[in-house]
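Posting for a labmate who doesn't have an account.
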Amino acid sequence: MHRPVLWSVAGNDSGGGAGLSADARAAEGCAVHLCPVVAAVTAQNSLGVQRVVPVAPEVLDAQLAALATDLRPAVIKTGLIGSVDGVAVLARWLDRLDADGGPRVRLVIDPVLGASAGGAVFADAALIDAYRTHLLPRADLVTPNRREAARLLGQPEAQSLADVPAQAAALRALGAEAVCITGGDSPDGADALDWLDTPHAFGWLALPRLDVRHTHGTGCTFATTAASAMARGFVTADALVLAKMATTAGLAVGHAAGQGVGPVGFDAGFAADPRWLPRLGCDEVPVSGTSGPALPWPVGLYAIVDAADQATPLLAAAEPALCALQLRIKRASHPALDDRAFAAEVRAQIDRTLAQAAAMPTAARPVIVVNDHHALVLDAIEAGTIDPAGIALHLGQEDVLALGPDGRAQLASAQVRGLRLGVSSHSLWELCRAAALAPAYIACGPVWATTTKDMPWHPQGLHNLRWWAAMSPVPVVGIGGLLELAQVEAVAGSGAACACLVRALASRPGEAEPVAGRLVAAVAAWDAGRAAPRRPAPDWPQPSLDPSDAVSA
């Protein structure tokens, strides 16, 4: 395996807990080649820091010059720099790397401005100003804790969760492309909360707080894991999910070293352990813990049709039946109708499909899912004209965000009353956001390239589908590009609960093979895949988006 190169320009911790020692553990655990560039030498142990000596600027410059000729980095991560001259040297090398014609080098700044133990201060006003002037405008990601964020901004430290998002926005206004203000050292309750503000996503990343003593090096571990994931091709929002997972897993395996607080460890299997998958909220209010889906989700084939008329032959097909059938009725398919008439048409098609399903034997009856049209469904549930337990609602991530806090509260109320929710996901942060909504299932896609929707996401492939199925707290539906029986069999063997078929089961004018025949063949392929030996889930997912691609947060 090719290992991308990461430079860490940071301090040496003589006690082996933080700084370049922690960076080396994290980079090795992430299969990244670390080049440790010593920017400062510290005299410290587990009880505190006794002395910090920045290296001479010519020594720092010589280290970077040697690396630039042979080990050009994908990402540079900073820790303790310790001097204005050191910042200036690094800034000059960033300019040179930008001008050398190679791939753009991404920059992650962990602003180590003081010691967490003992309170030693490593940065004066001049050094803070150098960060603002020379590093923040170049940064792809800055990962301060709340105390460091306040010092960079020259503001009081955030006294409540409500103050944190504004400080992250202020740091982005200084030029940083993305900011994550970590909160593991802030006692906010049962969850450790990190606020991320990136071009792709924002919100509180949450995992239960671990009651552990050995926490030295958490900031270094977090920033280096994020930088390592970025070096491996992940966009910043996804890299922060992996950093949250790695740091929490590392806290669980910290150890004593000396009389004081010991270092966090690094669990190289963190990315394949579902215990560490965080939740991501949609709002500035942290998401609360969830108890899982209101109702179980069935296993089998999941069909998507554009109209109730297309559902009829599928519902009338001889057993074996579908486990779920989704109505995806698009506004563009009814251009002659005004909004009121279109809403009435959608409701009529929903009612007709529900009635057809209700007439089927209970054992063969699929779950009827409505794609989008959340206002119609949720209002009908509140009015008592649709039984929430008799229908499911599928939403894309953009639909979830568009609901706003009030709409999401209405959705949660309907879920408590029995409505099953499905949510699309295409990336790690979307998986975490979906998991926070207590859905009945999470869709992973596109598994293969698809023409049904224009999207920036790379195909997930079976690699990511297996990872999703192993890591998701609820069943996973594989969707996108399933046209052949071999693909249905492969999705079944991945651990996914459902294989979603769109074009494969669509009615075709003049077709020789009836829909029922294709459905029976697809069910046989599904059964074969479920019976086959299952491959283990991957240790890491693969990136599903290029860093230059833009999607809605």
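Reply:
Got it, the structure tokens are right above this. DSSP finds 16 helices and 18 strands in the chain.
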